[in-house]
Write a structure and sequence with these properties.
Blueprint lengths: L4 E3 L8 E3 L2 H11 L4 E12 L2 E12 L2 E7 L8 H13 L3 E5 L1 H4 L4 H9 L8 H14 L2 E2 H8 L6 H9 L3 E3 L10 E4 L16
Parallel strand pairs: 5-6
Antiparallel strand pairs: 1-2, 3-4, 4-5, 7-9, 8-9
Helix pairs in contact: 5-6
Length: about 200
């Protein structure tokens, strides 16, 4: 049986259920993805009078909402059950995005996301937050090293920048190696709370 944990971040209204390491990595990556507005968990759907188990995360993009289907985490279903599962999702206008372990664990992206997320519990001083956001508002994308020099920060500014990324206030370039040359920019579109949040739809 999987060990269930709860995940919470700036893009979740309530904690979402996490049942595997792949789901945790994907939840972290979605939380740091500027194209994703919100993240939630869809336990079930009502389809033609029957309850259909879903048990997957849902990501809200500007273009719509999508179930995040991790190949390795799929439960065994017979053909009829799988068909009902897909029809129930499609009927709600929810798309399907498929991931496998290779997608989620690609490096250095996966390790970069974990390293950034590790700093989420420790908020920088409000004055530091204001200085960083003010500088980014004026200059757009700059490297972490340039940002540190621009605001005259005494010490390592990276943890503060990482916290702001976890708070959905700045965007980071996470595909290359993480460090002083990492590009950071102010969040292009601040998180908007969707009018409807999936918890189990009737």
């Amino acid at each position: 049986m999987p060990s269930f944990k709860k995940f919470f971040g700036a893009k979740t209204v309530v904690p979402i259920t996490i049942a595997s390491k792949l789901q945790l990595d994907l939840a972290i990556q979605c939380s740091l993805d500027p194209e994703i507005r919100a993240l939630s968990f869809l336990p079930w759907l009502n389809f033609r009078g029957e309850t259909v188990d879903v048990g997957m995360m849902v990501a809200d993009f500007d273009v719509g909402r999508f179930v995040l289907d991790i190949v390795e985490d799929r439960p065994l279903r017979d053909i009829d059950t799988e068909g009902m599962h897909l029809l129930a999702i499609a009927e709600r206008g929810i798309g399907l995005m498929e991931f496998d372990a290779e997608d989620i664990l690609s490096e250095p992206f996966a390790s970069n996301c974990r390293e950034v997320w590790r700093h989420r519990p420790t908020a920088p001083l409000p004055s530091t937050q204001a200085s960083i956001l003010g500088e980014l508002s004026r200059h757009g994308s700059i490297t972490i090293r340039e940002l540190s020099k621009a605001i005259g920060f005494d010490g390592d500014i990276a943890p503060a920048v990482y916290w702001l990324a976890c708070a959905d206030l700045v965007e980071l370039e996470l595909a290359p190696a993480l460090g002083g040359e990492t590009l950071v920019s102010i969040r292009s579109s601040r998180l908007a709370t969707p009018g409807e949040r999936v918890v189990g739809e009737k």
